[in-house]
Every structure is written in C-alpha cells, then in structure tokens.
C-alpha cells in the first residue's frame, strides 16, 4: 500500500466515545436548566414577599385613613353655627367626607389619592373651625356688652327695648327694600381661541376662563351710583378660586370676611342692568360641580351652579 493510500483512509471513532460525549452534553444542559429553575423560583418568592409587604402597608394606610375620616365626621357633628350659608357649606363638605369614607370602606386601594382628598377636606374643616370660633367669640363679646348696657340702663329698659325693636324693624325693612337682586344668572367655562374670541365649553381642561353673567334688577328704592359686585366661585373640593389669600383678596359678607374670585364696579341707575364678569383660570380646573355666589353691599344677591367634566 502506498503512502497516499494510507493518508486517505477514514478515521473511525469508537461508538462508546460518542455515547459518553452525548451523555456529558445532556448532563450539562440538565444542570443549567436546574440552576435556571432554582433562580426563577427564588426571584418569584422575592416578588411575592414584596407584594405581600406592599398589600400590608396599603391595608394599614387604608385603616388609618378610615379612622381619620370617622374622626372628621365626629368633629363636624360638634360644629354649630347660626349662619345658614356657612351651615350649608359645612353640610356639603361633610357629605364629601362621608362619600370618601364609603370608598375606603368598600376596599378602594387608591390610598394615595384618597389620602390627598382627605387632607384637602381636613384643611377645609379647619377653616370652618376658625370661622365658627371667631363668630362665637364675637357673639360672646356682644353678649357681655349688651348685659352691661342693660344693667346701666335698667330704669329705661322697657322703653329702649320697644324703640330698638321699632328702629331695627324699620332699618331692616329699608335695607331689604334697597337691596339689589341678580336675575337670569348663568356661569360656564370659556375656551379662548387664538384670535381672542371665546366659545362656551363644559370641559375643565379646555376652560381658560369662567364667565358669570346676570341682570341686576330694577329697584327705585336703591341708592343709585357706583356699586361694587363680588363673585365667589367654589370648586368641587370646596376651595375658593382667588388670585391670592391676603387681605386685598377678601371682602365682608354675611358678617364674615372671606376670599372673592372677581370684583367689578358698576354704575347702577335703578334700572335693569346686564353684567358679565370673567375669572381667568390660573391652573388646571378640577372636574365636578361648581357653586357661584354673587354679592353686593355685603349681601348675597344671587347664586347658581355649573359643572365641568
């Protein structure tokens, strides 16, 4: 046999070596698969533990929030005032607390958002507490003052009481007769276009202004001349839309001082007069029902509501 023939002969690998190599590869693959399954099981357990921890924290937060809302309802039960407008506002806010409490008790897990709503309602309630305390203090001072006057003037108390009732009745009748009224009130959102024209809209995100229009009633007994009109817009969460909170943004009404949204002077001549007043939106408006009150000479002369969605 030549050298060339020997070099061209095929190399034969024994069958046993092939089997061993196949077994080795199979074992390696199985080992890798086992390691992967072990790692995946460990990772899943970690995720489950983290989820259990999160659920436990949310449950604790929800329980604490439920307790806080129940305490707020209890505090509302203790708040008392003779001011009908203030009492009506407090009833609205109390209803919001009750509605939020129902959501929490029904198992809503949007705890972060609900806590923010509860915080806003708490701040509103604190404002009512301060207002009622101020009114109570004022009433106590008046009671002490009146007691002193009655003591010093006891000899003429009967006659003075009769005269006081008569004068008070006449004064009230005159004041009521002179009071203006706002009729045909409408309030709505305005979307301002690029050409500065406006179009009515009921969408909160597209409202650049809130417009309030009404007609001042004819009143021949009213004193003609300049009148200052105030519009007070309350958002669905009970806030007053205002350009600030300092004294320049406050006015007197119903024996208290509070924030106003819009102030505008008019020249009233005892005849019907159409008026429109615009609030320029400062930030995105919340969705829901808004309450609009109109005041003139410290008296509420009209009210309306509108909804933005």
Order of helices and strands: HHHHHEEEEEEEEEE
Radius of gyration: 37 Å
Spatial ordering of strands, largest sheet: 2-1-3-8
Instruction: Count helical runs.
Output: 5
Main beta-sheet strand count, sense and barrel state: 4 strands, antiparallel
At the first level of CATH, the class of the largest domain is Mainly Beta
What is the CATH superfamily label of the largest domain? Immunoglobulins
User: Whole-number average pLDDT?
Assistant: 79
Span of the ends, CA to CA = 100 Å
Low-pLDDT segments, ≥5 res: 51-55
Helix/sheet category:
alpha+beta
C-alpha geometry: elongated
Count of individual domains: 2
- Proportion of beta-strand residues: 15-25%
CATH architecture descriptor of the largest domain: Sandwich
Helix content: 40-55%
Structure description:
With 309 residues, the chain is α+β, with helices and mostly antiparallel strands. The protein folds into two domains: 97 residues, no CATH class; 129 residues, Immunoglobulin-like. The chain is 50% helix and 24% strand. The strands form three sheets. A four-stranded antiparallel beta sheet has the order 2-1-3-8, with no helix packed on it. Strands 7-4-9-10 form a four-stranded antiparallel beta sheet, with no helix packed on it. Strands 5-6 form a two-stranded antiparallel ribbon. Strand 9 and strand 10 form a beta hairpin. The radius of gyration is 37 Å and the shape is elongated. About 2% of the residues have low confidence.
């Amino acid at each position: 046999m030549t050298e060339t023939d020997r070099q061209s002969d095929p190399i034969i690998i024994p069958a046993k070596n092939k089997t061993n190599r196949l077994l080795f590869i199979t074992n390696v693959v199985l080992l890798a698969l086992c390691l992967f399954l072990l790692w995946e099981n460990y990772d899943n357990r970690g995720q489950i533990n983290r989820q259990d921890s999160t659920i436990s924290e949310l449950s604790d937060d929800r329980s604490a929030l439920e307790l806080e809302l129940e305490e707020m309802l209890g505090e509302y039960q203790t708040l008392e005032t003779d001011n009908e407008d203030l009492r009506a506002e407090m009833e609205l806010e109390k209803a919001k607390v009750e509605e939020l409490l129902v959501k929490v008790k029904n198992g809503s897990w949007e705890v972060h958002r609900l806590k923010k709503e509860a915080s806003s309602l708490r701040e509103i309630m604190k404002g009512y507490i301060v207002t009622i305390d101020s009114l109570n203090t004022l009433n106590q001072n008046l009671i002490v003052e009146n007691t002193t006057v009655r003591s010093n003037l006891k000899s003429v108390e009967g006659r003075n009481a009769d005269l006081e009732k008569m004068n008070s009745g006449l004064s009230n009748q005159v004041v009521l007769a002179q009071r203006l009224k706002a009729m045909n009130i409408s309030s709505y959102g305005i979307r301002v276009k690029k050409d500065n024209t406006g179009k009515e809209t009921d969408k909160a995100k597209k409202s650049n202004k809130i417009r309030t229009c009404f007609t001042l009633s004819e009143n021949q007994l009213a004193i003609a001349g300049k009148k200052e009109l105030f519009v007070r817009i309350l958002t669905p969460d009970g806030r007053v839309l205002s350009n600030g909170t300092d004294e320049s943004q406050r006015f007197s009404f119903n024996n208290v001082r509070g924030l106003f949204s819009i102030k505008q002077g008019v020249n009233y001549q005892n005849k019907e007069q159409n008026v429109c007043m615009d609030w320029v939106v400062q930030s995105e408006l919340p969705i829901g029902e808004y309450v609009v009150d109109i005041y003139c000479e410290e008296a509420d002369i009209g009210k309306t509501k509108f909804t933005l969605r």
